Amino acid sequence: MLTATALEATWRTKDGQHKTGLLKPYGAVWKAGEWHMVAAHPTGAPARFRLNLVDRLQPTDLTFAYPEDFSVREWWQQTMEDYGKGDVRVTLRVAPAAREELLRLSLKSTSRVHEHDDGSLTIVLFVDRWEWLIPLVTSYGPDVEITEPAELRTAVVAQLRSTLAVYDRAVPTGPVPPDGLPHDDSRLRSTHGRHPGA
Fold it and tell me: What's the CA gap between 62 and 24, in Å, rounded?
């Protein structure tokens, strides 16, 4: 039976709180430019811990038996599939210019992709909350449009108006592409090594 050493860990939560506890480490996963540790509390289920939020890992003299029926790969795949899924329907209209990039993104099993003769797409997502889609959608400029829900569409418009107000006060320096958008992998390179499907 595979055994491992339990760790005393201190980590930060997303809201800035510090927590300390005993963890049973099951493995590590590289995802979207960051390392994650898959570990469980002594009496809890496995969870993921972003290592850049872990301040201290100290080996203890305690050991644990690695569960025979547990696979880090399978657990991670299922966790990623479940993350963010919900009953809120979001529909995106994707222009041909963004087609290939959107098709490379990892979609959930509940997502639907409809391809049109002109090369455009309609993508239907079912999410737990739509707020996290605002920066994603606005990064595509006019190539991705929210058609539903109305609340998300309104939030995207408000975000774009707020951004435009800032740039209306700025003095442009340097050449700008004819449509105002770069036609390269700038968006991908700006996300710290993340890439579609990562």
Answer: 10
